[in-house]
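ugh ok fine here u go
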Amino acid sequence: VTCWCDSVGSKMQISSVVASPGRLLQLCISTLCCVLTSVFSKVRRWTAGTCKGTASPVSPADSRPDEGEAQTPTSVNYHFTRKCNYKCGFCFHTAKTSFVLPLEEAKSGLRLLKESGMEKINFSGGEPFLHEKGDFLGKLVQFCKQDLQLPSVSIVSNGSMIRENWFQKYGDHLDILAISCDSFDEATNQLIGRAQGRKSHLDNLYKIRDWCQQYKVAFKLNSVINTFNVDEDMTESITELGPVRWKVFQCLLIDGENAGEEALREAERFVISEQQFQEFLDRHSSVSCLVPESNEKMRNSYLILDEYMRFLDCREGRKDPSKSILDVGVKEAIRFSGFDEKMFLKRGGKYVWSKADMKLEW
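structure:
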């Protein structure tokens, strides 16, 4: 008897009728285990809404599909984990579940996205280097660049868990590493929650910048502008670090994530006005790599995939999930994503994102 498993379940083929009762029992148990593993994973996706703090798979988004032309998932942000070791007060993708898809299922979903037109994948969290000490993330990065041959593979991280041996093992497959840094004052980072104990977030930032240079990975910075850093002048520090891009986000409220009764964060005290955000941008107008992201641009111009591989619709100020692309396919799921492809292009979502085309001086 020959037994094997695939993504759907377990199949058994009778190749010989000669088998000992013990061997037959062993193979039957093995087959049952394969079936249960596959079923359990699918049940966890479909019943995510019954878990504490997760949104229902049958959501408001399911009743209002987008009309018009089919959307192409050119650039996808895959938040494969929600767990994080930092406690940023404005975080809008909080640790409401500890679920992470099995590696092979995650790869299957990424392959579906590639077949549907994906050119860039960005891995985020939570903190993506936290799960399996970054090895899970590294395997996904390698798969996307080596097997799927995506033009661009990137990561957003707080940087606290990154070690040099990760670059040695997986750096060749990574185009861009974005590190989140909201202030160049350690006390401000502590107030925001972008810290772990008394470790220096800034010392780590400069160390990672050097590793990116050494292992030929494009270095990027992300900053969330809020009440604690809105009056800061970061020009000198940004110029010294020399990132290829500096994404500057306006603090955004998402119901059920960082606002509202069901939220794990209370971000209202971090919110700034449009005028305050513009004043910050004006103060840094001399920084050539600055890329501003207002709340209006953020809400519907990003394709966000959650830990169950469901697209998240943020148009109504909350995250309404589609069904998983593993269950209904990309074309069906993306109809409920709220994705505005025109706004994606208007905000410069498509740029030179492959390190091979950046012509950087390493």
